[in-house]
Structure formats: structure tokens, C-alpha cells
């Protein structure tokens, strides 16, 4: 039996989106991407390998998963499994699962950290980023705090994330609107592949991402909030245009998503600087400056109820916890 290891990883929200794989086996993306890690949403995972086990035992939020439901975790463990030993995995997700809040990013980043440590590996953060990518593409960025960029690369070695600014010392915040915490009907993987295969606009998307990355890096470096906000908002809408132009067309928006987007535009027209983004789900994330939080949170609470409004700030990279969970 190996010593148990516990890791915590936070979700990230992409400012310049990853949407589409170039290689589904190696999980290589079509484009690079850039994100901000958030402090409010995270996953804690403990892993212990035990030669006495005859199969992996995976628990998520205190519920034991069936072998079928835990198949993806089992395949990930195969990448680090010592001497063919099976593992106990205990994971707690402080994120609504599969609702467009990057739960898979924090989940597989935490699993990469805990499983590799439990297997006796002492990986660098670059190596952890590469490993996490095999579970979830966006997990490669959750190894790092603050702003991080995932370089698409051309093979397993070169497709990794690196930090852009982990010590975010300017007053920005993210207001997450949890408008629907239920399982989404079209998974991110399904949606990406459909967009790549059928949207006539997908070739142009690659040019959009290259342009937006080149523009947003200096905006972050100079703390140009308006420039960053304009880029992240337009990038999100162009990503979602791919889903609307796929065959058959689909969308991750719901009615409340559209209400929230209009409310952001109204706030901006009235002089409050804020910008929205959405990933593969209906939940809207608002980028703002901390001085504007009272106005923005009150506006959104009036629309959706205060229980659906969560304020987040830039968060840390992967952490290894000294007191692992008890099995």
C-alpha cells in the first residue's frame, strides 16, 4: 500500500477559448488558449494505491461510482499506476459538475497531482500540466494560478500550459452566475467535435484565437481592463457562434443567459465597466473591477436571486495538502 496523497486544484475560466481537438488520442488542441484560475471553485482529491485491491474504487462527493462511471478516471490512473496496483480515489467537487464551470479542469488537475504523488512521482508543474491534459484539456491550465496559457504544441511533450501572471495584483474579480447547475445535454467533447466537423466557420476560428491571444497578452501585462474585457467577450461569442453554425445547430445558452448578457450591456452603457463570457454551459461569468462589485452583484441578485451570484477572485495553482482524507 502506498501513502495517500491529496491535492487541491481550482477551476479556470478561459478568456481566449479552447474549442476543438486536433488529436483526440493525445488530447492536443486545435489552438492555444488563455485562462484565469478562480479561487471559489475547486476539487480536493485523495489517491492511495493498494496491491490488495482487485479494482479501482472511485468516490465522488461521497458517492461510490460504478466501474462504468469511473472509466475515465481508471484510464487516467493507468498513466501513473505503480506495478499495476489499483487505487482508492476520493474526490470532492466544490463546483457544479458539467454545468460549464470547468469542473473537469479542477477534477483532473487535482487527480494528476494526487495520483502522481501517490505513485511516488515528484513531477514538475510542467509535467503535471502535461499529465492533466490527458484527463481534460482545460485541466492543463489549472495546474497554475492566475493567468495561464496553454500552448497547443504539436505533440505530447510540447502541448503544455505555462503561467502568464500568477500574482494578479490588480483589482479584478469574476462574478459567476449559476443559472443552471444541472448536467448539460451536449457535453463539451461532443460540442467541440461537432463544431470542428460541421461548422463552416471553424477555419476562421483558428485565426480569431491567434489574433486574440496576441492582443490579450499585452492587455494583461499593462493591466488594461477594458482591452482585456473586450477581447474575452468577443472571443466567447465567436466560440458560441460555432455551436450555432454546426449541423445540427445547438447552443449552451438558456433564457437566463441572454437576460444576463443584456444586463451586462446595460450596466456598461450606464458607465459600469464589465464584460461577460460563457464556456460550455448556460452559466455566465462577469469580469469586473472590485470597485464595481456592489453595483454588479446587486443588479444580478435582483434578476436571479443572491443565492445564484458568487464572487470569485484570481486563484492559486495546484496545492498538495498535508492532511490527506482518511479512507
Please outline the helices and strands.
Blueprint (H helix, E strand, L loop, with lengths): L4 E12 L4 E3 L4 E2 L3 E18 L6 E4 L2 E2 L6 H7 L8 E9 L8 H16 L6 H9 L5 H4 L4 E4 L10 E5 L6 E6 L10 H11 L3 H20 L3 H20 L10 H15 L4 E4 L6 E6 L3 H12 L4 E4 L6 E3 L6
Parallel strand pairs: 5-7
Antiparallel strand pairs: 1-4, 1-14, 2-3, 4-7, 4-8, 5-6, 8-9, 10-12, 10-13, 11-12
Helix pairs in contact: 2-3, 6-7, 8-9
Structure overview:
- With 327 residues, the chain is of the alpha+beta class.
- The protein folds into two domains: 5-167, 2-Layer Sandwich (Ribosomal Protein S5, domain 2), CATH 3.30.230; 172-312, 2-Layer Sandwich (Alpha-Beta Plaits).
- Helix content is 35%, strand content 25%.
- The protein has nine helices and 14 strands.
- Strands 1, 4, 5, 6, 7, 8, 9 and 14 form an eight-stranded mixed beta sheet that branches. A four-stranded antiparallel beta sheet has the order 11-12-10-13. Strands 2-3 form a two-stranded antiparallel sheet.
- Strand 11 (274-277) and strand 12 form a beta hairpin.
- Helix 2 (103-118) packs across helix 3 (125-133) and helix 6 (202-221) packs antiparallel against helix 7.
- It is globular and about 65 Å long.
* Overall pLDDT level: 95
- Gyration radius from CA atoms, angstroms: 19 Å
Q: How many domains?
A: 2
Number of discrete helical segments = 9
Strand content: 25-35%
Q: Show unreliable segments.
A: none
Give the beta-strand count: 14
CATH class of the largest domain: Alpha Beta
How is the CATH topology of the largest domain named?
Answer: Ribosomal Protein S5, domain 2
What class would the helix/strand composition place it in?
alpha+beta
Helicity range: 25-40%
Termini separation (Å)? 12 Å
Indicate the overall shape. Answer: globular
**Sheet having the most strands:** 8 strands, mixed
Order of helices and strands: EEEEEEHEHHHEEEHHHHEEHEE
Annotated CATH architecture of the largest domain: 2-Layer Sandwich
Amino acid at each position: 500500500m502506498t501513502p495517500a496523497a491529496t491535492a487541491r486544484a481550482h477551476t479556470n475560466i478561459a478568456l481566449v477559448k479552447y474549442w476543438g481537438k486536433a488529436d483526440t488520442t493525445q488530447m492536443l488542441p486545435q489552438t492555444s488558449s488563455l485562462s484565469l484560475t478562480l479561487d471559489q471553485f475547486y476539487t480536493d482529491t485523495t489517491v492511495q494505491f493498494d496491491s490488495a485491491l482487485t479494482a479501482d474504487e472511485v468516490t465522488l462527493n461521497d458517492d461510490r461510482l460504478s466501474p462504468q462511471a469511473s472509466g475515465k478516471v481508471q484510464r487516467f490512473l493507468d498513466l501513473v499506476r505503480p506495478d499495476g496496483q489499483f487505487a482508492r480515489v476520493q474526490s470532492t467537487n466544490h463546483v457544479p459538475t458539467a454545468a460549464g464551470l470547468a469542473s473537469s479542469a479542477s477534477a483532473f488537475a487535482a487527480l494528476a497531482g494526487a495520483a502522481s504523488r501517490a505513485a511516488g512521482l515528484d513531477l514538475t508543474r510542467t509535467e503535471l500540466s502535461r499529465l492533466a491534459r490527458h484527463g481534460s484539456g482545460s485541466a492543463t491550465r489549472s495546474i497554475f494560478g492566475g493567468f495561464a496559457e496553454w500552448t497547443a504544441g504539436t505533440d505530447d511533450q510540447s502541448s503544455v500550459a505555462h503561467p502568464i501572471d500568477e500574482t494578479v495584483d490588480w483589482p479584478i474579480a469574476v462574478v459567476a452566475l449559476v443559472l443552471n447547475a444541472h448536467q448539460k445535454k451536449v457535453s463539451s467533447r461532443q460540442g467541440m467535435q461537432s463544431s470542428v466537423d460541421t461548422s463552416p466557420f471553424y477555419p476562421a476560428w483558428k485565426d480569431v484565437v491567434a489574433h486574440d491571444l496576441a492582443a490579450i497578452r499585452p492587455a494583461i501585462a499593462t493591466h488594461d481592463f477594458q482591452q482585456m474585457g473586450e477581447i474575452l467577450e468577443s472571443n466567447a461569442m465567436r466560440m458560441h457562434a460555432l455551436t450555432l453554425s454546426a449541423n445540427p445547430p445547438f447552443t449552451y445558452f438558456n433564457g437566463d443567459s441572454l437576460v444576463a448578457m443584456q444586463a451586462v450591456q446595460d450596466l456598461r452603457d450606464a458607465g459600469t465597466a464589465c464584460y461577460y463570457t460563457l464556456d460550455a454551459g448556460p452559466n455566465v461569468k462577469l469580469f469586473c473591477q472590485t470597485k464595481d462589485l456592489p453595483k454588479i452583484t446587486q443588479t444580478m441578485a435582483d434578476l436571479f436571486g443572491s443565492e445564484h451570484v458568487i464572487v470569485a477572485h484570481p486563484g492559486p495553482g495546484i496545492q498538495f495538502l498535508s492532511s490527506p482524507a482518511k479512507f
